[in-house]
Amino acid sequence: DANGGIWYYDDDTWGSSTGYPPATTAWGLAKFIPDRDTSVTRVEFWTTAVSTTVDVYVYDSFDGTTLGSKLGEVLGTTYNEAGYHSVELNSPVSVSSGDDVVAVVKFVNHTGYIYPVPVDINGPSEHGNGRTYTSPNGNPGTWSEALKDVAIRLRWSNEMDVGITKRVIGRGHEPGDPVTFTLSIENSGAVTATNVIVTDTLSSDILTPTYASSPGITERGVTSYSWNLPDLMGGASSVITVYGTISPTMPITGMAIWNTAIVSSDGDDSNTANNSSTALIGGERIYLPLVMRNY
Predict the structure, then answer these.
(1) For an engineered disulfide with 109, which of 49, 129, 153, 187 has Cβ 3.0 to 4.6 Å away?
(2) Which CATH superfamily is domain 162-282 in?
(3) By CB neighbour count within 10 A (0-12 exposed, 13-18 middle, 19+ buried), where does 179 fall?
(4) What are 126-147's pLDDT values in tens digits?
């Protein structure tokens, strides 16, 4: 990700493992202080056994004893090999420079190996600075600061990717028929998109158009079919539905109406190829088989 990076303390990566024998379950924690306003998109770590299930959490604080408010979670991911893994959060988590963000992973080894938490034994240690911890069960008061840094990381991203898809509902339309379009707008990046503008260039052959949306939108007044959307957080989406009637004066044979919608926003969009979408009414072709007979 050219617009992102990774926070970590395990400078020499995974070099050893720890746990609470004879149990094969243990928890690891890493507390980071962001150096910028950004969005956390993934939790990354090593697993130490040939079969491990992890629960991943992100919290807004940790005082050495108790975790704060939960910001995200991904539960029950199983890996059938030891090594480095990356879990994508269901939605990016916005963080602010200087405000703590905490990654927590519950490791459950299934093969009897009793040291499920990865640690860095060779790199410089953050011990004494209150950065990484382990626990036998993740409960308040059970956390111990790790002597060697726990190998749990957070990946952050400033990427924004706003795209639009325009569709016609149904097919087989004829002149005079009602017609419905949907415009689906989504920010598949991590950073909130602001000043989102959708422009739908409707053909003059679509009569008496009206629209509805979720969430609400504001007409810009530039044209009848241009709207300001609310800010779109990473992973958020919006839908505009446009209704109209096909002009009854259109020819039935060869009827084809092309409509294009465009989305734009402030900031550096990482993918402009999905900023426009075109829908076609009509233009359907029926192909009949050619049957040859010998008499």
Answers:
(1) 49
(2) ntegrin, alpha v. Chain A, domain 4 (2.60.40.1530)
(3) buried
(4) 999 999 999 999 999 999 999 9
User: pTM for the full model?
Assistant: 0.70
The fold for domain 4-157 equals: Jelly Rolls (2.60.120)
> d(Cα 254, Cα 283) in Å, to the nearest integer?
6
Q: Which two tokens stand for residue 7?
A: 């926070």
Q: What kind and span of H or E run contains 106? A: strand 101-109
Burial degree of 286 (CB within 10 A; 0-12, 13-18, 19+): exposed
The answer to whether the beta carbons of residues 119 and 151 sit under 8 Å apart is: yes
Kindly give, in sequence order, each residue whose CB lies less than 8 Å from that of residue 216, ignoring residues fewer than 6 positions away.
230
Pairwise CA distance, residues 192 & 234, whole Å: 5
Q: How far apart are CA 126 and CA 32, in angstroms?
A: 11
Q: Report pLDDT digits (tens) over 111-127.
A: 889 999 999 999 889 99
Q: Which two tokens stand for residue 104?
A: 């927590």
Q: Give the model's confidence band at 201: pLDDT under 50 very low, under 70 low, under 90 confident, else very high.
A: confident
